[in-house]
Amino acid sequence: MIHFIGAGPGAADLITVRGARLLGEADVIIYAGSLVNPALLDYKQEGCAVYDSASMTLEEVLAVMEETEARGGVTVRLHTGDPSLYGAIREQMDALDARGILYDVTPGVSAFSGAAAALRAEYTLPEVSQSVIITRMAGRTPVPQGEGLRKLAAHGCTLVLFLSAGLLEQAEAELLAGGYAPDTPAAIVYKATWPEERVFRCTVSTLARTAREHHISKTALITVGRFLGETYERSKLYDPTFTHACRKGTS
Ligand code: SAH
Hints:
- The chain is α/β, with parallel strands linked by helices.
- The protein is 25% helix and 20% strand.
- It has seven helices and ten strands.
- The protein has a five-stranded parallel sheet with strand order 3-2-4-1-5, with helices on both faces. Strands 6-7-10-8-9 form a five-stranded mixed sheet, with helices on both faces.
- A hairpin with a 7-residue loop joins strand 8 and strand 9 (198-203).
- Helix 6 (168-178) packs antiparallel against helix 7 (207-213).
- The site of S-adenosyl-L-homocysteine (SAH) has 25 residues, from helix 4 and strand 10.
């Protein structure tokens, strides 16, 4: 059996209860060492073998899984954040399907949730933004044509950029060209929920400069939008005058 597990954004106690339990039952753990906090390995049982996938190919990862499976062992594949975002798990699951090896997936707290917590922010504010775009700059992995940052920026909603902290000159230019005003609030969240977490608040037009000044080029998320501003409408749900299925309003 293979368990794909989301490790959460960094802090070792932000893994799910299920994820921690399965880590403790593993005979083999393959973890994404470049991003997963090594403190998570404290959940492992004695004798558990550990592989860092940072220097491994897909084929090597699969070979370890197959070997463990052949001797009836349990493998945990530990991915950072939630495995469904930039986790490269589809190719692993397809290969396991082809080999008839069973697996399941335990979700994790994504870095974008960790970043919101670090910012003490709510991405979806009434009359400000009711949508969150999660995307990245094209790097060595291309982004499909219809999803260029400039096009997505045209929505003006809350936007979270993964994998882009080293490309902020271009990101800034695309965000501005797409329609965000230069003074739109933005933030760079470095290592959200790790002990060394840092938050840098800025604007769209000062993103690149802010990252440069603080030497941030990786393990950071960029958040953009007026959700970081001062104004919003309060919620209907908790408005005393508003009636809904669970409560009668006063007017
Ligand atoms: N599956 C992960 C994302 C993997 S892609 C998730 O759901 O969070 C790796 C990118 O995620 C990094 O380049 C960085 O942009 C972001 N990232 C991961 N952990 C982070 C953290 N603790 N703080 C800020 N950004 C993080």
